[in-house]
Amino acid sequence: MRTGVNGRPLPPAGAARPAPGPGIALVDPIPLFREGLSAVVRRTPGLRWLGSTGHLHTAVRLQEQLRPDVLLVDSVLDPQGHLATLLTANDPQLVVISLVREPHRTAKFVRGALAAGVRGLVPRGGEVGEVLQAIVRGYQERMYVDPTLAPLAAGFTPTAEAGSRRALSRREYEVLQLIADGLENQAVANELYVSVETVRTHVKNILRKLRARDRTHAVSLAYQAGLLSSNMK
């Protein structure tokens, strides 16, 4: 029998290593909540804590850098489901779980979130066990709605409500953020290391998808729809 440096038996040569548990990340504006969920996940066997952010504008970067299996998002940061649509378009295997605040406990929000690609919904003020169950079952079953929210999803049909969504690409989202910061096309191009013509193409796509008259109108619509948030900075 082969043994390691600590004297413990080693698995047979060629044996598959046990797969690590799902990686968990969080997008939430409250530092105390982020610290609390981090502590809970870290002490839960089978789960791996990857990190968190409190800002909407860094959520895409967090997802790309950490590649979590499950990403929890405070509903106040994604009231229209635009972030969920964007993130799941970038990574179809990602399980987005919405932490639903009291004002969003409505059929409109729940159905909109599911249409946007959210795969789990749980009250943000729920018990620790309820949130963990949403994480585990959302990851394993790729769909979990807390029993207290399930009646709000009754009769939901994904194809009927998701078909009209026209999600911005990751790059379009970045361009829109920079436009909202007041940057002109050349400055956006410099920031993203692309050509001005590429930026113009992205702007045209943004205007078309948001059905906006111009850049200012696009930013206004994005804030109204929750694609951009005053909590970003």
Q: Which percent range describes the beta-strand content?
A: 5-15%
What's the overall geometry? globular
Number of helices: 10
Neighbour order of strands in the largest sheet: 2-1-3-4-5-6
Helix content: 40-55%
Order of helices and strands: EHEHEHEHEHEHHHHH
Q: Helices and strands: which structural class?
A: alpha/beta
N-to-C CA distance: 58 Å
- Rg over alpha carbons: 20 Å
Number of strands: 6
Mean pLDDT over the residues: 84
List low-confidence stretches.
1-18, 160-165
Largest sheet: 6 strands, parallel
Explained architecture:
The chain is α/β, with parallel strands linked by helices. The protein is built from 10 helices and 6 strands. It has a 6-stranded parallel beta sheet, sandwiched between helices. Helix 7 crosses helix 9, helix 8 (185-192) packs across helix 9 and helix 9 (196-210) packs across helix 10 (215-225). It is globular. Mean pLDDT is 84; it is low at 1-18 and 160-165.
Key phrases:
6-stranded parallel sheet, 233 residues, 6 strands, 44% helix, 12% strand, alpha/beta, globular
Brief overview:
By secondary structure, the chain is of the alpha/beta class. 44% of the residues lie in helices and 12% in strands.
Task: Please give the structural blueprint.
Elements: E1 23-27, H1 31-42, E2 48-53, H2 59-66, E3 70-74, H3 82-90, E4 95-100, H4 107-116, E5 120-123, H5 128-141, E6 144-145, H6 158-162, H7 170-180, H8 185-192, H9 196-210, H10 215-225
Parallel strand pairs: 1-2, 1-3, 3-4, 4-5, 5-6
Helix pairs in contact: 7-9, 7-10, 8-9, 9-10
